[in-house]
Each structure stands twice: as C-alpha cells, then as structure tokens.
C-alpha cells in the first residue's frame, strides 16, 4: 500500500531532522563527560576556563558554519549541503572520541559544532520548503522534538556509562555514540526529494513539478493543489530571481527585510540568553551548588530530558492550531517566573543549608522551566525565522538568525563556566 502524501512528507521531514538528534545528544552528553576521572587525566585536569572552552568550541564551530551554509545551500542544494554537514560532524566526532589531549577536544568540538550548525539551519529550511501549508508549522518544530530525543538518549547513556564503566570507555563510548545519527542521515538524504523551491530557483521546473506531485498527490502532476503550488513557486522565483543575486544586500537595504532580520536575530538571542544550554552543560555543578551529588544529578538530568520531550510533543500538536505569537509570549512569561522562584530558593537556602525540600523545589523549577521552554520557546525560535522570509533571502537570512543563536549561546559560557565550575560536584 503506497504511503499517503502527508505521511511521506512527514517521513521526509523526520529524516531531515535526524541532524538535530546529534545536537541534542551533544548538549546532554558533555555533562557526564566532564566529571569523568579518566577524561580529566587525559586532558590535563582542565580548569574552569578550559572546561568552558571545551563546551564553547562546539558553539563557536556552529557560529562559523553559518557564515557560509546559506550560500552553500543555494549553490549545491539542500540535500547535498546536509550531506556536507554530516561529514563535517562525523570528522569532529571521530576526533573527540580518539582524543589524546585537550587540544583534540578543542578541535573535535569545533568541527562537530560546524556540522551541527549546518544541520540545525538546513533541516528547518528543507522542512519548510517541502511541507504542505497545513502541516508546515508542525514539521519545522520536529527540529526541537528530535533535539529532545537526542538529549534524552544522552542523559541515559551518560548516566549508564558514568556508573557502569570506568577508564577511557567511561567517556570515549558516549562521545563515539554521537556519530550514529549522522550516518543514516547522510545515507537516507540521498533518497529524499530535493526542495522544489531550490529546483525552481535553478531553472529545473519540471523536476520541481514532479517533486511537488510526489510530496502532495501520489505523483499526480495534474492535481489541483500541485499545479497551483507549482505555478505559485515559479511566479515567486521569477519575481525574486533578480533579487537572489543580491540577497545579502537586500537583507540589509530593504526596510521590510531588515526588520524581519532584526526580529529573527532578537528572537534567537533572547531564547539562548535564557541559559537553557547552561543548565544542560553544567547541571552537575548547578545542582552541586544546592548540595546534590553528581550521581543524583545525572539521574535528574534523565528525568529533565523526558520532561523536555513531553513539551516538544505538545508543541508539535498545538503549533498549527494556536499559532506562534501568543504561545511564545506566554511561554516566556512562565519561564521567567520559574527563574525568579528558583533564584529566591537558592538565595534563601544556599549550599550547606541541608534543606531537602528546598532542593526538591529548585529541581521542580528547573523541570517546569524545561517543560515550558520545550513546548514553546525552543521550537518556535526555529520555526518562526524560517517562515518570515521569501525564497530569495530565506537561506541566507536563516543562516544569520541561526548564527545569532550560536553566538549568544556562546556568550553565556565565560561567566557560567567560571561561576559553576568553581564548585566541584559533591
């Protein structure tokens, strides 16, 4: 029985989002790698600044990739650009897994970050361009959902390796596993259709029609929606063809484009400055500050990943029903409230107060923040920028907004590393 067009489109979007599993996994696994005794021996017992740099190199690499990934996607296509991202990530993951000193970790994390940055930008772009308008929002939020899957896998693997293994296997194995999602993505993307918008931009109009028919009408090129969508794409491409040559200029000189660009950058900046990644990277040290040991912390992190996944499922369910703006506003308001309460708890009951109820309350606030973030702020921050721009500027504009995410994420680490790594986990 042939797959329905909607199921086929979902599967295409799902495979494209496999790259986000690598991002989520890297976000979660580093928390269990840094405390490993053998890892610290190999890397020369890095201090707070060096550990922060190990974490930050991933983000610097992701930022660097966004300088060129938009142009690459417009030149070779979305699929081939995704393959390049996979190969770069695999190289970085291999260097980390075989690291012989801290410099291997710096280089491996930077290359892995370049791959992750490419995949994180390309996946929602590809999903938005193959999706039917009725499911576009849900399809682009698969990015955050798959990120949650990666973080969940990392939390359980990290917990198991930290307790069940010793020596170099304790940290090399979890670092090596990060490469697994990129392998099937690099293979399966070859069997997925190219973006019809990209094909039209390259003058391959018949191929664009065939792809649209395959995605939305069981291959029927005479389907009403397919014909109308094809005509609309060709019309847009014809209008934007001249603009595409000057896309970088138009982003900054056209008032409407520049306003959208500022909104996209501001959105990504504000999302990352919530510190959500800091909680992922330094959870053992954060929880140690209220008297929770590393072993318990890694278990709590697993629970946190489950909660995040629940939130991401909620977002996939509601996004095309409730829209984008108000869910984002409410999610930010509630997240801010959890931070206020959590800060009060730490101020009133600092480490050493031995108040278990306070510790539980603080953990509850971090979990509630993660639920709200994952059900609104996180996925919408990737879905909204993709929908804001026309096809002439979309790839390059998305690269810029993604860069804002990485650089603002990186900005939070110098202070975070110095602050949280001063206290050794109990």
Automatic annotation (TrEMBL):
PROSITE patterns assigned: MFS (PS50850), SUGAR_TRANSPORT_2 (PS00217)
Pfam family, one: Sugar_tr
InterPro entries in the record: MFS_dom, MFS_sugar_transport-like, MFS_Sugar_Transporters, MFS_trans_sf, Sugar/inositol_transpt, Sugar_transporter_CS
Ranges for domain Major facilitator superfamily (MFS) profile: 12-426
Transmembrane segments: 7-31, 51-69, 81-99, 105-125, 145-165, 171-192, 261-282, 302-319, 326-349, 361-384
Keyword Transport on entry: yes
Keyword Transmembrane helix: yes
Catalytic activity: myo-inositol(out) + H(+)(out) = myo-inositol(in) + H(+)(in)
GO cellular component: membrane
Keywords noted in UniProt: Membrane, Transmembrane, Transmembrane helix, Transport
Principal subcellular localization: membrane
Cell compartments where the protein resides: Membrane
Membrane topology: Multi-pass membrane protein
NCBIfam families given in the database record: SP
Family: Belongs to the major facilitator superfamily. Sugar transporter (TC 2.A.1.1) family.
Record-given protein name: Major facilitator superfamily (MFS) profile domain-containing protein
Native source organism of the sequence: Cerrena zonata
